[in-house]
Amino acid sequence: MQTPNERYAALDLGSNSFHLLLAEFRGQRMVRLHTDRAMVRLAEGLDSNHQLNPVVTERALAALQRFQPVVDKLPLDHVRVVGTNTLRAAAANADGFLEEVESILGVPVEIISGIEEARLIFNGVLAVADGPPRLRCVIDIGGGSTELVRGCDTPQQLESLYMGCVSYSKRFFADGLISRNTTNHFDRARRAARAELQELQHIAEDSEVIGCSGTIKAVSRICNEGEVKAITRGDIDQLAYRVSSAEHTADLDLPYLDEERRPVFAAGLAILHAIFCELDILRVEVSPYAIREGIVHDLAGRLHGGDRRADTIAAMVQRWQVDTSQARRVSGSALKLLQQLRPQYPPEGKVRLHWAIQLHESGLALTHSSFRKLGAYMIKHADLAGFSKSEQEHLAYLVHNQRGRIKHPHEHYGFHPSPDLLLCLRLGCIIHRDRTERSIEGLSLYDQGDAYHLKVNQQWLDESPAVAELLEQEELHWRSQNRLLQVTAV
């Protein structure tokens, strides 16, 4: 349960615009206290090599300076900053930009997958949905991607398609041209969007269709004399014909069209009209809520016993038939060793260690010979609800390096694996390699700056000769690391 008037902030670093939401919970009801938006068009600054243009990044950083005072007033664990399509594409080359964002906001940026983005959008829209549970299809057209989700109380199908109002503007509406001579760029964009939707005609069947975010709200205002209300098939057919007949975006004489949205409106409309046509939709209701509200609800859940990530791990354990008894043994010893080593270790790190251990044998569901590598691959590339991409990388790194030679990771923004967690996981695996219960009362782990020191009771070693051999091998493995491991019998 939230404490009275507990406040949260969500910041969505989208491909077209950045959005800030400050909200609080009054009872179980979320109340929006403050919203802000900056039309950044981050996707415009992404070149073919996935590099961000300095002019666009400066525009983005200036917008964040405006948001900073709101974020600065809250505890760090009450703020979440997420990056979506453009930052997913640029992540490998955007370390400097992301570090500057964090220095301004004081909060790390989490790059999320398209499927996680879709889940958060669905949860945000449904958080305030009224009436009895019913089948819904939620649509969100962003700057770089379009998310479609089908579900009732929870998502049943999540899709993220690489088509957005900014990316399609760059692709089809260069210099703002819509139609000239025999080339109709609006028709080309609409056909391309319909092609992307070819396998999804069923996603809106027998469901209430709800749209959200900038493009859909802009279309709604134009079709409804400035009000945000439902969009009908007839309305959007007429609007699409009108826009496709124009020569240039500057020629669009549309009431209630925000001038900041004008350069990307034709592309967004082409995508939305394609969705209506390809999915055979007659009416789309429009929600004022979207991903920001989903982020806030997720944040509140993490702090008050409803962490979606824990549910995801539990589902993976079941799906991959993990030996839960072994995971319990290894986790118990590893966490005790971490407590010895770092009594004040952050709770989030302890949870990450526990989750990695729960999944450390997940690869055994498919292979014995390369189970660590396969398990790590599945964790890194799976769509894990609630997790950011860097969190998945951390888990995958720990699983891959649970035994044997320790691989040096390629570190980047958001991914700086902890040797403390790795050591404790590896020691836990060694202690219980034979899948038996074994107390660690005879072990003492501490850090002297230049090396880890593990003191082991000689009698304990004598009773576990195989473990003693594995500990000697572990000392050798740590010689390749920045910090050594020294094992001493006492």
Descriptive labels:
6-stranded mixed β-sheet, 490 residues, 5-stranded mixed β-sheet, alpha/beta, elongated, 3 domains, Nucleotidyltransferase, domain 5, Hypothetical protein af1432
Explain briefly what this protein structure is:
The protein is of the alpha/beta class and 490 residues long. The protein is built from 18 helices and 16 strands.
The percent range for helix content is: 40-55%
> What topology, given as strand order, has the largest sheet?
8-7-6-11-13-12
Tally of helical runs: 18
Principal-axes geometry comes out as: elongated
What Rg, in angstroms, do the CA atoms define?
26 Å
CATH architecture term of the largest domain: 2-Layer Sandwich
Total beta strand runs:
16
The helix-and-strand class reads alpha/beta
Q: Tell me the domain tally.
A: 3
In the CATH hierarchy, what is the superfamily of the largest domain? Answer: Exopolyphosphatase. Domain 2
**% residues in beta strands:** 15-25%
CATH topology of the largest domain: Nucleotidyltransferase, domain 5
Low-confidence stretches: none
Question: What can you tell me about this protein's structure?
Answer:
The protein is an alpha/beta fold. The chain folds into three domains: 6-111, ATPase, nucleotide binding domain (Nucleotidyltransferase, domain 5, 2-Layer Sandwich), CATH 3.30.420; 129-288, 2-Layer Sandwich (Nucleotidyltransferase, domain 5), CATH 3.30.420; 307-440, Hypothetical protein af1432. It is built from 18 helices and 16 strands. Strands 8-7-6-11-13-12 form a six-stranded mixed β-sheet, sandwiched between helices. A five-stranded mixed β-sheet has the order 3-2-1-4-5, with helices on both faces. α5 (165-172) packs across α9 (262-278). The chain is elongated. The chain starts with 5 loop residues before the first strand and ends with a strand. The model has no long low-confidence stretch (mean pLDDT 94).
